[in-house]
Structures are given as C-alpha cells and as structure tokens.
Amino acid sequence: MSSKTPRDELIDKFSHNSNEQGKLERVVVISIDKSSATYILEWALANFLQPHRDLVVLVNTRRIDPAVGPYVNPSGFVEEFDSQKREASVALLKEHIQVLREKNVACQAIALIGDPKEEIIRKVKQIRADVLLMGSRNLGTVKRAFLGSVSDYCVHHCPCAIVIARPNEDELEKGTRRRSIFSR
Description:
By secondary structure, this protein is of the alpha/beta class. The protein contains 7 helices and 6 strands; from the N terminus they run βαβαβαβαβααβα. It comes from Absidia glauca.
C-alpha cells in the first residue's frame, strides 16, 4: 500500500504496537476539509470507528488554481499562494490526526493536490479502502447543480462503501455535537 505518489504527501502517521498492528482488518478513508473536519471526525469516532480494528487514512485535497494568464506569475505569486494552501492543508491534517492518536487509532494523514472529486476516488482505489467517510457541505439544489458536489460524485464513482455524515439543521445553527446513535 504505497501512500506516496507525485500528487500525494504523507504528512504524519501513527501505529499501534506490533501485536495490535497485525490485527487491523479495515481501511477507512476519511476525507476532510476545513468546514467538515471536526464534525466528520467526531461522528466517526462516536459511531463508526473501531480503534483496534481500523486503519484510518485522513485525506485533504487542495486545488491547483490555474494562472490568470498563460505566462502571468508576477513575482512568484502563484508559488506563494500554493505554499499558503499547502500549509493550511498540513495544519488541518496534523490537528485532526492528533485526535485519532489520542484515541489510539492507527492512522495516516495524506495531503492531496488536484480536483477533490478525482483525487479522493484515486486515493481510495490506490489504497483499496473498505469505506470512505466524508461530510456534506449542505449545498442547496441550485449550487449543487452549478458547482457540483464532491460527495455526490464520490457516491457515483467510489469502488467501496461510502458514508456521508451530514449535521442536522440544529447542529448547523448552534454548532452542537450530535450524540452517538447508540446513546439515544
């Protein structure tokens, strides 16, 4: 399971001790972005992940913005802007892999570059994931039609099971956490 290609950057990883590491049975990819990372990770820990059974691969994809013109790059603006996006991606992954470490979940954090729809599916196929977990940005019908939905694309193209965790209206407004489905 190679975690590195020219478009991927392994940011961090955490493993159990050698006895527990051999018992991992499931590869779970969790796609995170700034808006959904905390919610999807909390939901996954409360409702889905089994720490001594799962290897969690956190992925965050940053887009490559095309230059304004074919040869326009005044004083390295494009490189500086990409560097800022890379730093934000790395910080997001490091922050959330720490949560998994504290819960003793075997994990990796990988920064991807490109179109999120295609890169998430490429990575899921490459590592032969058993499940893809992702959040929903709650785009309305019109925005989803024009912008496209990453989760909608993944539902139709993902080779494995996919779970989309969507906060309910109250949680969106109040920022409250949803309880585990098993504690209701």
